[in-house]
Specification:
Strand content: under 5%
Shape: elongated
Largest sheet: none
Helix content: over 70%
Structural class: mainly alpha
Order of helices and strands: HHHH
Length: 125
C-alpha cells in the first residue's frame, strides 16, 4: 500500500513540475527560442503531463496488477524523453536530441507491458 502512495506522490510532483515548465515555456522562453524549439519544449511538457497521469492511473490499479515495472518505464521515459526535449530546446546541443528516442522507447515499453499485464488478468479471470 505504501508503494502505491509513493507512486501517487511521484505523479503529483511530475504533474506539478509539468505545470511550472509549461508556464516557464509560455512566458519565459517565448522571447528566446525559435518557434520550432519552443514546440519541442511544449512536446516535452505535453508528454510529461500525459505520462504523469499514466503513473497516477497505474498506481490506482495497484490492487489489480504489479505496476512498479510499468511506472518505472514511464518515469524513465519522462526523464529521457521530456528532460532531453527541454535540454535540447534550451541549449540546442544535438546530443540531447539524440537521447529523446530512448525515452520514446521507454514509453512504448511501458504501454506494452501494461497491455501484457491486462492480457494476463483477462486469462486469469
Amino acid at each position: 500500500m505504501k508503494n502505491r502512495y509513493l507512486w501517487m506522490l511521484i505523479s503529483s510532483l511530475i504533474l506539478c513540475l509539468a505545470v511550472l515548465l509549461g508556464a516557464f515555456g509560455a512566458h519565459g522562453l517565448k522571447k528566446f527560442l525559435t518557434p520550432e524549439l519552443l514546440e519541442t519544449f511544449k512536446t516535452g511538457v505535453n508528454y510529461q503531463f500525459l505520462h504523469g497521469f499514466a503513473i497516477l492511473i497505474v498506481a490506482n490499479l495497484s490492487k489489480e496488477i504489479d505496476f512498479k515495472s510499468v511506472n518505472m518505464l514511464f518515469l524513465l521515459g519522462i526523464v529521457l524523453f521530456c528532460g532531453n526535449c527541454y535540454l535540447y530546446s534550451i541549449t540546442q546541443i544535438k546530443a540531447f536530441a539524440m537521447i529523446v528516442p530512448l525515452g520514446g522507447v521507454s514509453f512504448v515499453g511501458a504501454w506494452l507491458l501494461l497491455a501484457l499485464k491486462f492480457v494476463k488478468l483477462l486469462k486469469d479471470s
